[in-house]
Predict the structure.
Amino acid sequence: MAKKKDTLDELKKKTEVLDSTSTKKVVKKAAKKDDAKPAKKSEEKPVKVKKLTKKELEEVKRIEELTLEEELEEQLSDEEIENFQIEKVDMERLTNKVCDILAEKESDGMFQGELWKKLKLTNQIGSRLALKLERMGTITREKLLESNRWTYKLILKKTPISTESIVHAPCLVCTVEQKCSLDGEISPTNCQFIEDWVIAELKKPVIAK
């Protein structure tokens, strides 16, 4: 009996070993089979690129071609443009200087970049000044493509009236203005005050521009 039991135990062990081995083989085969199969790629739907409408394309082109002045015109109100001032700068004198420079170029005008360099102004300040002068009717701006960049050529339209030449004119404070006339005893043609003023102005040194 003991011998049979030992034999049965030995057979059981062998069976367990065989079962274990066969199971491992089956698992290995299954794993190899799975490896052999290519993994299914997750189906990615192509992203549809939305085509821009004609109006949208025109807007993109417009934004790309915007100049600094056009950007400022969109950002600033008419009042802000017209009342533009440069701190510690006599705007009347600066305007006259711009006019003097542009007058030399006559109808050919001048690229604004060159003008700002001459006046030692930044593009930002120069652009605001150009907008102000255009609103005043002093200059016209012609948009041109220069070196693959949009810019403006400034052309003098009219010279602004300056009051500097008549600041000290005697007529402004004349005590006998009421009696003054071309035919009267007191007349601009023979006024001693006017004569003295003109002589004094002529003796003043000419300031280089």
The longest strand covers residues 139-146. The radius of gyration is 46 Å.
